[in-house]
Amino acid sequence: DGLSVAFNEGIAFVSYDGAATWNCLxxxxxxxxxxxAASTYADLTWQTLSWYYDxxxxxFYVNDSLVATQTTGExxxxxxxVVFIKAGEAFAKVLHCDYIFCGFER
Length: 106
Prior knowledge:
- This protein is mainly β.
- The protein has strands spanning 10-14, 21-28, 31-40, 49-53, 58-62, 65-70.
- The strands form two sheets. Strands 1-2-3 form a three-stranded antiparallel sheet, with no helix packed on it. The protein has a three-stranded antiparallel sheet with strand order 4-5-6, with no helix packed on it.
- A hairpin with a 4-residue loop joins strand 4 (49-53) and strand 5.
- The radius of gyration is 14 Å and the shape is globular.
- The mean pLDDT is 80.
């Protein structure tokens, strides 16, 4: 529908149809923690989106600038990198993904 997400557990940046903002989202068992409109974007621009979970907080960054910190909603299951885009308004949606980097500490 372009106005919701459908996954049980995860950490994500989400932009819903009709908006030019990033929402920072963490979900556990379909319960969301959201920081709405944490950052804006424009068509035809490159951005670097990243998040870091330190065991307590999840920090969201846009172009290396902290835009949100969440202290609840961290997934308890395995989290895998996923890139997806929805076309809920029946318009062509285009996402260019230059790279994905994953790292972890033990």
